[in-house]
Amino acid sequence: MNPEQIIAALKKLVDDGKVLTDPADLDAYGKDWTKQYAPRPLAILLPKTTEQVQAIVKFANENQVALVPSGGRTGLSAGAVAANGEVVVAFDNMNQILDFNASDRTVRCQAGVVTEQLQSFAEDNGLFYPVDFASAGSSQLGGNLSTNAGGIKVIRYGMSRDWVAGLKVVTGKGDILELNLDLEKNNTGYDLRHLFIGAEGTLGFITEATMKLTRQPTNLTVMVLGLADLTNTMDVLQTFLKNIDLTAYEFFSHQAMQHVLAHGQVQAPFAAEAPYYALLEFEAVSDQVMEDAMALFEQCVENGWVLDGVISQSETQANNLWQLRERISESIAPRTPYKNDISVVVSRVPEFLTEIDQVVTEHYPDFEIIWFGHIGDGNLHLNILKPEDMAKEEFFDKCQQVNKWVFDIVQRHRGSVSAEHGVGLVKKDYLQYTRSPVEIEYLRGIKRVFDPNGIMNPGKIFDIGG
């Protein structure tokens, strides 16, 4: 079939007006937040039901049409980029919360439900959905699960996969599977949920998910501490964890905070400057917890780990302190940052970060390095800002060499080249730094079982043929 025939046939599979071919739509739906690849999709489909998705996948198998899933398009690994004439399946119209069970504390959602929509629904019902990150207002649940998104509260609540009670998926063959039936205990062989979570749409498309909810946290309180040295991040973390259950432990460099402050919407937390800052969040459920927190703070100061600090006295102040961390990406965006999302076990973080900082600075002293991340779970975000007088193409070329240095260090520390944004196209060539050749071949074998014709998000994570 030629492209015109394919588009004509696709129009019969979805509702009227839900096949988009306008150049502006192709550009908008054919990419995510990465900038390395130009979007070139054939068409955009907006299905409404699982059955429509199934019909699309069966048609794609019969006619060898490549499909790319599209959620909120907030990814940073080009996992949702359609650069080779693929058909994009966008889940914007599958955005309904279908069922809520107060006794089980579960909610069944379509894949296009926006993260913030789920968070608000949980709150309206006196519960809490704890997976949270800066893109919660636009990211979609299907995309979150397809990359196993983490965010700012992993230290307490875990990753997206920890909150999935059940999934409905359309496999690459076009079969509809209902996985786990929302059961808490189900020891009946392989748990296929966890193959689709983190698979970036390469095995099939998630169309519905039953998500677990939990109780709302009480009196969330935030501390921001100025640290004397990078290694003090671990000293402070270990000290607090002995006495307090933290809901978040974030860090950011002084350079990162300077960019946020330059925007003028947030004030410095205290007068003293520090090379690094830690942001701690915990539930102040009693006066005793607050007293314990203050005693731990004083202990950290006495040990020389903390130069100064502030603790929130209200919900508004807690939110304002969070802005120091949450506004970093927004504040550096105009500088066309190179971003890398990497992880190691928590105990290796200071040495790991220092090695990367040194190797980049040694080779490219004109590059400004911005560090921040979820240091409490070993997830670091390396951001290098493009010099204003350097062409974007030259900058990205140099960053490819940076990738090699960074991932050599990742491999030496037995870390991951992607902590929470997936592999996509951006990190496909570096998968071997985290996964062995034998393991990658097992991954390819799984792909062949679920997607024998190779139509589901082809070229992402790895090439099926080698």
UniProtKB/TrEMBL annotation:
Keywords: FAD, Flavoprotein, Metal-binding, Oxidoreductase, Zinc. It catalyses: (R)-2-hydroxyglutarate + A = 2-oxoglutarate + AH2. It holds the Pfam family FAD_binding_4. It comes from the Bacteria. One of its GO terms (biological process) is respiratory electron transport chain. Its cofactor is FAD. GO terms for molecular function: (R)-2-hydroxyglutarate dehydrogenase activity; FAD binding; metal ion binding. Gene3D superfamilies: 3.30.465.10, 3.30.70.2190, 3.30.70.2740, Uridine Diphospho-n-acetylenolpyruvylglucosamine Reductase, domain 2, Vanillyl-alcohol Oxidase, Chain A, domain 4. Its EC number is 1.1.99.39. It is an enzyme of class 1 (oxidoreductase). Residues 37-216 form the FAD-binding PCMH-type domain. Homodimer. Belongs to the FAD-binding oxidoreductase/transferase type 4 family. PANTHER family: D-2-HYDROXYGLUTARATE DEHYDROGENASE, MITOCHONDRIAL. This is D-2-hydroxyglutarate dehydrogenase. It comes from Marinobacter segnicrescens.
